[in-house]
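Researcher: Let's do a round of design. I'm pasting the structure tokens now; please hold your answer until I've finished.
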């Protein structure tokens, strides 16, 4: 973690560039996202992708301390609910959050303490992902739990597309 002050400074920079206010980078003209969308000149900043492209979030915990990402997701959801704020420009991209849904524990040649520890780690990971998914759902992010027995299976299932999408 880079520290709360650094996250706050980074969020301020994103907000200034998002709104089109003067940024710390004085070498380039800074116009806001609304104008960039209207002029079809998006892609200048990495966060434009949150408003213009379909995104898959996988293998990323999306901790609540990542306040700049949560701010972007909140802005996107707010503008989707109120398109008049975006000067009648519609945001119609899809952002999906994939997370592991552990159903079983592999027991092969493991001590009881390792099995119990594995169970609680997987359960805690799933509960955290479920909590984050609940907030993301309110932010108009599509939630996709992937049934799996391990992280390796989670990634394999995602890459192969071999998973059942559940809400």
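Researcher: That's everything. Go ahead.
Model: Designed sequence:
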């Amino acid at each position: 973690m880079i520290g709360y002050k650094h996250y706050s400074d980074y969020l301020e920079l994103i907000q200034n560039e998002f709104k089109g206010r003067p940024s710390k980078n004085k070498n380039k003209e800074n116009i806001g996202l609304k104008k960039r969308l209207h002029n079809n000149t998006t892609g200048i900043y990495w966060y434009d992708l949150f408003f213009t492209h379909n995104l898959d979030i996988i293998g990323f915990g999306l901790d609540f301390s990542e306040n700049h990402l949560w701010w972007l997701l909140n802005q996107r959801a707010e503008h989707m609910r109120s398109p008049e704020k975006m000067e009648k420009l519609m945001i119609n991209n899809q952002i999906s959050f994939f997370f592991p849904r552990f159903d079983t524990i592999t027991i092969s040649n493991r001590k009881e303490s390792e099995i119990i520890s594995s169970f609680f780690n997987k359960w805690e990971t799933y509960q955290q992902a479920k909590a984050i998914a609940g907030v993301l759902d309110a932010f108009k992010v599509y939630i996709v739990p992937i049934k799996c027995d391990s992280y390796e299976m989670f990634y394999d299932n995602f890459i192969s597309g071999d998973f059942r999408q559940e809400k």
